[in-house]
Amino acid sequence: MSERILLEWGRESVRVLTVSEELTRRAAKLAVSTSFIDHADPGVPAQEAGVRLRIWLDEVHVPKGKCTVVLPREAVVIRRLSLPPASPEELPEMVRFQAATKASAPIESLVLDYLQVPGTDAEGGQQVITMTVDRTQLDRITRVLDAAGLQVDHVTMSALTVAQLVRAQLGGELGQVQPDMVIYQVGRRVEFSIIDQGTLIFSHALQLPEAAAEGDPLKPLKSELTRSIVSLNQTHPQAAIERCFYVSGDHDTNVMQLLRQRFPRGFETISSTGALKGIETAGYESLVGAELPHADDRLRIDLLNPRRKVERPDRRKLYWGVGGALAALSALFGYLVFHTAQSRLKTSIQLLQTDIKDLEKKLDIGKPRLTDFDRLAKWKEKDADTIELWNILQAQLPGTDRIYFTSLNITPQNGDVVARYTGKAQARTRSDADTLNQALAENGFAVTPKDVVISNRDQNYPVPIDLDISLLRSKPVNPLEPAVAPATSVKTAVTPAQTNGGR
After folding, report:
1. Cβ contacts of residue 29 below 8 Å, gap of 6+?
2. Rounded CA gap, 482 and 115, in Å?
3. What confidence category does residue 190 fall into, taking pLDDT thresholds of 50, 70 and 90?
4. How many CB atoms lie within 10 A of CB 196?
5. First-residue to last-residue Cα distance in the chain
6. What's the CA angle centered on 236, arms 235 and 240, to 5 degrees?
């Protein structure tokens, strides 16, 4: 009978769950925790911290052996990246290239793994959720645990293991039909996660204030709920969260009451009861989820052994070997007939083969990277900020006392065009419409002329404008220098929040 060790590495505490394994039967054997701060203090040498941790582990009868480490949500940096289409073999390298442009530290100083969001986005590309940890921090964790007699073989994150527990308790139905929210609470620490299409698309953590603190102690929780839903709407405009699953070993009645109010039709509490046989595991839900088997990789990462580029077998050596053997046979036959000529020919062939191999190797090494950079460059041409595009147009507009818009769409482009603007507006006079078109044409916009027919829709603004313009890349415009300065400060009728961006 073997025994698995699962350890949650917090900043101020360590929680351990041991699970015995016998054939297909798994049973929780021991669940212990301690307020142990030396392990996370970089000022304490890893060897010394590991020895102290081993003393405590011996006191609570935790054996030595292989260990799975679960990091809390706040220890991991999560980002959503948009990428051009790539094969499964090339995707890990593509993720690293794009992540390097977003990271605040050199990518070599980080450990990175990711989850692929199923399907494609509106632009035909694909999205991934990256998860990074400082490499120095991860090295310290492995060195401390190694000194404590624990060999780390897997490193994951609590948001994923708790989601795995919820999915197992629901029979695999988490986030399949529509996005679901998972709230995980340990003491005053609360983690928020949104699961869609079976994978994690958003996660955040906060620390609730002390109960005796002034003001509403649940105010941070309310704000974070709103933030989570807003974040979802940015990537899933038509989606709505109707189900919320609350996971905690010590239920907070105030938090549960708030969640019932926010999700009146879909609030449910999830416990670890029944997930593993053996002792009670309430309060150790993140560790129980880490021990449950995965049906697929949609909730699985390993920061110790992250996804890497799959190298295809290089058969060129085989081909060259076969060719070399054939050449050798031909050379041997020629040796018997023309000894001198064969000797010179064989030497020349070997030199040419060596040069060809060296040149092909150099070309093959650089070609995938050059292709990836070229694809990323073309992709990022369309990665324009809708707010900046709006500011460029707004700088050329008069006040609403002359023209107002009823609709406006901004679609980022690539190539010679930065963005295309289409929409409807009403002007007081034909002169106002002509003045606007002239100002746009003089400030880097290509204006598509349209016939103007006087309308009775608005008697005060009878001249309709059918806007169809393109912002040219060859003529950058300074949005801080408006072409027409109105006599008084008047807000335009359309704000950035009302535009429908094409991104």
Report:
1. 3, 18, 19, 20, 278, 279
2. 44
3. very high
4. 22
5. 55
6. 140
Give the model's confidence band at 266: pLDDT under 50 very low, under 70 low, under 90 confident, else very high: very high
User: H helices within 113-157, ranges in order?
Assistant: 135-147
Q: CA–CA separation, 129 vs 199, rounded Å?
A: 9
Q: Look up residue 209 and give its two tokens.
A: 């204030």
* Locus of tokens 């921090």: 137
DSSP letter for 112, please: E
Cα separation, 446 vs 416, whole angstroms: 11
CB 116 within 8 A of CB 196: no
- With contact defined as beta carbons under 8 Å apart, do 492 and 405 qualify? yes
Looking at this protein, which amino acid is placed at residue 17? L
Q: What would the pLDDT profile of 17-62 be if each residue is shown by its tens digit? A: 999 987 677 899 999 998 877 788 888 999 999 999 999 999 999 9
**What does the alpha-carbon distance between residue 116 and residue 113 come to, in Å, rounded to a whole number?**
10
| Span 164-185, pLDDT tens digits | 999 999 988 898 888 999 999 9
Query: Which pTM was predicted?
Result: 0.62
User: Across the chain, what does the average pLDDT equal?
Assistant: 85
Q: How far is CA 197 from CA 65, 115, 160, 275, 461, in A?
A: 36, 12, 14, 23, 48
Which stretches does DSSP call E strand in 163-248? 180-186, 189-196, 199-207, 243-248
Least confident range of 57-66, 177-186, 320-329, 377-386 = 377-386
Q: Give φ, ψ of 81 to 5 degrees.
A: -120, 140
Residue 391 to residue 499: CA distance in whole angstroms? 12
Q: Report the half-sphere exposure of 430 (CA within 13 A, side-chain side).
A: 6
Q: What mean pLDDT is predicted for residues 446-462?
A: 84
- The torsion angles phi and psi of 226, rounded to 5 degrees, stand at -65, -45
How far apart are alpha carbons 407 and 409 in whole angstroms?
Answer: 7
CA 146 to chain centre: 31
Closest CA to 98 of 74, 123, 130, 125: 130
Amino acid at site 440: L
Core vs surface per residue 199-208: b (16+ CB within 10 A) or e:
bbbbbbbbeb
